[in-house]
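DM from R.C. (forwarded with permission)

"hey, sorry to bug you on a friday — could you get me a structure for this? deadline for the figure draft is monday and I only need the backbone to look sensible"
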Amino acid sequence: MINWLDNRTGFRELMHEALYERVPGGARWRYVWGSTLVFTFTLQMITGFMLWSAYSPSTRTAWESVYYIQNEMFIGYIIRGLHHYAAQAMVVLMAIHLVQVVIDGAYKAPREMNFWLGIVLMMIVLGLSLTGYLLPWDQKGYYATQVTTNIMSATPVVGPEVQKLAQGGSDYGHLTLTRFFAMHAGILPAALVAFLALHIYVFRRHGLTVHDAKHAPDTTFWPDQVLKDAVACLAVLAVVLMLAILRPAELSAPADPAVKFDAARPEWYFLFLFRFLRFHAVEALGLTFGAIVVPGIIMGILTMMPITAQVLGEWGHRLNKAFIWLMAIAIAVLTVMAFYEDANDRGHQAALAEAHRDGQRAIELASGPDKIPVDGAVSLLRRDPYTQGPRLFAQHCAACHRYNGHTGRGTLVMEMNAEKVPVIGAPTAVDLGTFGKREWMTGIVTDYSNHFAWLKNAQWFKDAQAKAAAGESVEFINPDGSEMADWTSGNVESLKSAENADNVKALVEFLAAEAGHAGAEFDSALIEQGRKLATEGNWAGALNGTSCKQCHETIGDAFPAQPTDDGASGYPTMAKYGSAAWLKDFIRNPGAARHYGAKNQMTASTPEKLTDTDLDLLVRWMTGDHTASKVPDYPGQMEAVKAAISK
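My reply, with the result:
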């Protein structure tokens, strides 16, 4: 059978030609890099076909199909992880192979054609990395690829046309995705296979370039070098498989052009160029200089290396080696700088945390009972109070308020001091991180002055206090001088006494139950006891007879569907105080007589400023009315704020 097959195909001669290539100086580990590159590309092809079988390239189905691969398909996350990490391994191996070729002089005549083919292959590999980044259609890839296409536009003369060609028109959307998919899965792999075949053919034509022909006795490719290549390929497979299992490839939130993505960065192996473009001198010279001219000059120098070595001889080779080492060191230094600066950039780290949170939340919602809606995964987060509430708070509330010390999105509010140095800004309104909860109610009942103490940082408070000191009649909320402040500060000992401990607990339970935030559980007996305290004042000791009802006439009542100021007593209404209905009305009409009236300083949020949909999302987030989540919330920053203010 073998003789028949050989007679028909001549495979024995082909195998002998492939396996018994002469290796001067013996097999060595330094020769494995080309084989590992071919192996890694083969791994990319195999896993790529597997991913292709479940991938759907459209703006409404791309993220959804990658989610399916990652979370539903059998060992899909391993396949995607192998593809993801093998792509990164290919870039690293390619860089090592380039350095090794230059050091060994394998680019010199008559091998210059093979060297130039290798540079073309390097460009194709980088193109595969860039085009594959977009395909999940998540926030990370969407915004990072926009940066890439914007760099294309900086190309002299033809830049705008090249950008339009790459992204499928002037807009960035569905056609961009389909074109990048066509390049990633069709055009570039076909080109790589074609140039790889040429590369191997020319390589075999001129033979292996050895660093030291006298290192060991000559041998053949089989079996010694094959064994070393196989071990190296196995090591590459082991590394990428371990990473795929232990650290699955990330899928961030679905791409949403309406959401600014501050954490956008290219893949780590392009960070050196990103950092280079951020140098002030480079920025001053423009994007074309930093992203087109300088890389073009470097590629020109690489391309000219065979000619440099031929013209200048050994000095040319030394010059080429010095350049390749200098370039490698510069890339390493710039990459480390980028990582270090990002790690110490508080804003970037907060953006990363938010991006990670959004990605986890999107996957959580997609895995929930409602699955992914017909209009696509992007609507999952757009309709999610847990995601949109913090953003709306940061946009509309964080100028004055804080949420557990931060803007709602985990970031601190920074402002410039007199020395033009950024410092943590002081809140000018009460922190709303515990609004409507037991902690909030406890602060109001037992420590009103401290609970609202942040108001004293506001300029309006300082102005009003100055006018009052000058004898003018001014109505304003004074944490130290209101009726509520007088009641709590005048009854500190009684409120903190053992005989009233249960009463304080009961009143807080009643008030928190009136707010009725989602997910909270309450003690009905304590609620009833607290109701009597609020309406009848059944306290122990000196507090006996004092009740909330004496000032707040509406306490314990249902909040009306159509609230009016009829019967307003001049004190904030306590009808379902802190509930969603109360909060919506307060945000819309903080200066109404049923709330703070003439004392109010808060700007009303009209429907033109805050739509009804956004108001609903904000309030539902603040009251906990959203799908339960295992995704951690933003960490509190109150201690950092207090420490900064106390300095």
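R.C.: lifesaver. The radius of gyration is 34 Å.
me: no worries. The mean pLDDT is 91.
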